[in-house]
Amino acid sequence: TTTTMKANNDNPQAGQGRPLPKKESDLFKNVVKFYESKQYKKGLKNADTILKRFPNHGETLCMKGLIMNQMANLNNVIGVSDHDKKASGVDGGAHIEDKKKEAVELVKKGLMMDMRSHVCWHVYGLLHRSSQDYAEAIKAYKQALRIDSENLQILRDMGLLQIQMRDLAGFRDTRLRILELRPNSKVHWLSYALSVHVNGDAVAAVVVLDNYMATLEKDSVEFQRNFETSELALYKNRLLSETTLQEDGGVEGIKKALIHLDEIHSVVVDHTGWFSTRLSYQLQLGQFESAKETAFALLERGSTEEYRVHGSLMCALLKCDRDTCREVEKMRGTGTLATLRPLSDEERTILLNAYGTDAIAENGEEDGSDQVMKDGLAKTFPKSAAIKRIYLTLLPPTGEEFKVAIDKYCQRQIIKGVPSLGSDLSSFYLMEVKRPNNGETRNVLAKDPLNVKTHSVYRLLVDLVDSYVTSLSSNSTFPNDSATEHAPSALLWAWYLRSILHEQAAEYSEGISLINKCIEHTPTAVDFYELKSRLLEAGGDIQQAADVINAGRDLDHQDRYINNQATKTLLRAGREEEAAKTISLFTRHEAPAEQNLYDMQCTWYELELADCWRRKGELGRSLRKYMAVVKHYQDFHEDQFDFHMYCIRKVTLRSYCDLLKFEDELWGLPHYGRAAEEVIKIHLHLVDNPDKAQDDEEPDYSKMTSAERKKAKNIARKKKKALEAGSGVGGDNSASSKSNTANNDEKKKKGKPHVIDVDPMGKELLALDHLEEAKKFSAILVRHAPKRMSAWALQYDVSIRRGKMLMALQALSKMNSIDPNDHRLFSRIIDFSQKLSSRTEKCHAASELVISGEFTKLMNGKSLSDFVQMAVDSIKADPVSSLPMRIAVAKAMISVGGSSAAKEASSLILDSKLNAPCVTVETCREAVAFMESLGGGNKERMMMLIMAKLPFAKDC
Amino acid sequence: MGALAIDFGLINADNVEQLKIINQSCFPVSYKASFYEDMAKKQDENLCKFAYWNGFAVGAICTRIEPLPGSPGRHRIYIMTLGVLAAYRNHGIGSKLVTSVLDYFEAQKDEKLFSTVDEIMLHVQTSNVDAMKFYGEKFGFEKGELVENYYKRIDPPHCYILRKKLR
């Protein structure tokens, strides 16, 4: 044995059939055990003991490296972005980075020592996984499996990575191998079924589930009524409904699923889910009578306030086609079939018969004045607010009945004092629009003040509320009921509603004078300060808006909602320090508020703060905050890792599928879009103005108003001071190391590490390759939000700067297919045309052919100047052309026709008298800037117009 | 419309601003910051409270127990402020606030400090006929001595003491 020991000593490689001696091999088992139970120090100690005798033992080297890597990760609390990985708050960034490097080196060395060990490859994979390099990790796992093809642990780890990476085929193969190895485990059967499902084969997935069920004993718990059985049954049901065949339009699958749904009724515990699914199937199969019964059953079960159920019920009553039913199922909020599209008289009659011909009538039980007998659903469910509200949407909005009903509706809410009444009513401003693709008519909500003002329902509401105000202020009664006197709050809420109606029509001065009455009447009501602040903001005075909402916030310091609103308004007013103080009233006090908000993934705050920095020209700080939001979304994506195993174990397969879908669509969500778009814009701005990246550069004071100049100089002075405090050369570094030590002290006290922001000024972000960064994000956006105009606009902006003419043109075509009349498209077509003629290099002949062909289409076959003239003519012909379009066309006139076009260009904007859509503080600011560039008193003329529309906009 | 069904709510550091707003809109004198600082400290919610209607504070009463001058060991309830927003007056809110304090005294009259309380009193500006009527007719307060130049910044500067014996 001594000789073998000796041999081991020289080359103790387990993979070569020479295992470690008993003592060391036990120690190695301990190392693995300690790693798994996260007792890293003990694991390290054991590993070192082995290495003392066998310094070249590959598996031990790997394990040691893995443990060291874990320890480094633990200390390296995730910072504010990927860029701080090299620095952390605890042991000093460099140290931890060294540790990680050492760990990686150890693993690599171990692997080199023992390339035929599956353990080494597995560890190598884990190492990649911990640095989120999943593709490399999968490769390493595959190597490990080549050596040990039946290693369950490795197979399982690889499966997780594959589903995370959406290597769907690989995932299915892995799960099949696992199932073959362990065919008696429920989890493996379900995982395999799911892997087949996500590969798009619902039919085969059903077979897998059936096979699994066939392995079970008759009296197995899997057949009894419980949560897991129920979820599995409903999952199988969903699979059945997805077994769609092209020929039958998916109906066969639905038919099967409907039959199956009846079979599983006895084991299902989610009854509401069962009924909803049944309702959906029945509608899709056109079984309208049974669908009606199912909908009634849902209402009986207590779903009377679910607008979706009402929408489906209406579909059943009106026997709608499949597409409409699906469209209605997807509607949100108070949307139903009745708000989706205009109803015919016949349809109205059917629905009114079902819902009750006078559903809004007083509820007899409430006040004993049961004069009008109700019928239909309104009678069956007299307490349902939704049914009363739906009744309003069933009446023709121009008729007398509607007027009477909405009158009652408003009065009731005003007496109660419901602040949300105004926004509730705004969902009645429906306008009919024909869809371009199939000519169907759909309702859209009138939102622009221009459309709201002329809407018949809005006019009606204005008349009603005016009459309330008159009547209530003279004798505390409503116009049509002089017998009932109401509390003083009735007049108050009538004023408030009137003020909101003014807000909806962009009548800010009128709105203010009414809301002032409210505040004088009841100065303790927070809602009034909020509305006043909103009116001031929309009317152009953000500073006063912030002051007013802050006064409202003072009424109750425990009101988190108003605290957040105040914070938001302060940020918009550029008062980020006050905002930070305000928001920190509701953050945890141990950590700095900023860090706490980051940890809580408080996206709205970070977006507003980033906007605030951007407006101040602090591009580094701004980028930093936008990137924090981007990081949150990366974290959301990472977070799904935990669910791959958990959901299967808990058999919540339906929710798991929904989660996978949600994660796939993550980068298309609006908040991510907002952050990513701003990131792109800043990088592009830096591409165009490379000198702006230096943050100690003096801002261009000449372009500012005197107030702005003062502010900007103040900021510059403060910045300088801060730098000097950081003591001369490399001030920023020494400042951060100072806070490092402070942080260390704190850590000792509290025993847990705090993260410090190593790069609050975003200098590292400013040093990146701007075009490359912009390209990265615009590629993500157009892939995940392909229907968003702004995404393609930025894709154009990035591509054109990269000299990629074809990509830029493709972006234009996409924009054209979304909305050919958008001003962003128009200005980019002009830009493209100019770039096309001014460029020095041409593309391949084939590309040139595509470009000239496609672009000629976009230009309607016209020359540049004719194209612009066409736009000018169409604006002149259409008095309600939007302000942004007017600005875009006016700019094009100047850039194509030169300064001689100034007069005509300015009149394009001025002639609108601002009675145009999209008149906001922001668009007006752009208009002023443009008009100023034209000179000749244009700015003053513009300001006159603006002051009439935005009465509080002193300096636009 | 007659009496409003109000609720009572306590005054604390987070909402004391509302007391300030109510008082400022009700009284010609403005109280010192220290008055509100005291109110922000934990007060007996039975002696100081808001009246809520429809979710918003529309009135408030602030009283305290203080030594009765000239009678060592004896005390009185002093009404520091009672205010109801103008729009909500004549709906019985003020009466309910005063009654709630009197009811509290009745329930506690034999307990600890309250067993030493003999009267409830307040100062009323000589011109404030409404207030004298309110306390006199509704609660049986009696007009006491005239205190000259009690107020510094308002005219008339004099006030009466209104008091009601509680035992």
How are the SSEs ordered, and which strands pair?
The complex is a heterodimer of chains A (956) and B (167).
Chain A: H1 2-10, H2 22-36, H3 40-53, H4 58-75, H5 93-113, H6 118-130, H7 134-147, H8 152-164, H9 168-181, H10 186-198, H11 202-214, H12 227-242, H13 251-263, H14 271-284, H15 288-300, H16 307-318, H17 322-329, H18 337-340, H19 345-355, H20 364-367, H21 376-380, H22 385-394, H23 400-416, H24 421-426, E1 430-434, E2 441-445, H25 449-454, H26 456-475, H27 488-504, H28 508-521, H29 526-538, H30 542-553, H31 560-572, H32 576-583, H33 593-599, H34 603-615, H35 619-639, H36 641-650, H37 653-664, H38 670-688, H39 706-725, H40 731-750, H41 763-766, H42 770-784, H43 789-801, H44 805-818, H45 823-838, H46 845-858, H47 864-877, H48 883-897, H49 902-910, H50 921-934, H51 938-949
Antiparallel strand pairs in A: 1-2
Helix pairs in contact in A: 2-3, 2-4, 3-4, 4-5, 4-6, 5-6, 6-7, 7-8, 8-9, 9-10, 10-11, 11-12, 12-13, 13-14, 14-15, 14-16, 15-16, 16-17, 19-22, 26-27, 27-28, 28-29, 29-30, 30-31, 31-32, 31-34, 34-35, 34-38, 35-38, 38-42, 38-43, 42-43, 43-44, 43-45, 44-45, 44-46, 45-48, 47-48, 48-49, 48-50, ...
Chain B: E1 7-9, H1 16-26, H2 33-40, E2 48-53, E3 56-67, E4 75-84, H3 93-108, E5 117-125, H4 129-139, E6 142-147, E7 159-165
Parallel strand pairs in B: 4-5
Antiparallel strand pairs in B: 1-2, 2-3, 3-4, 5-7, 6-7
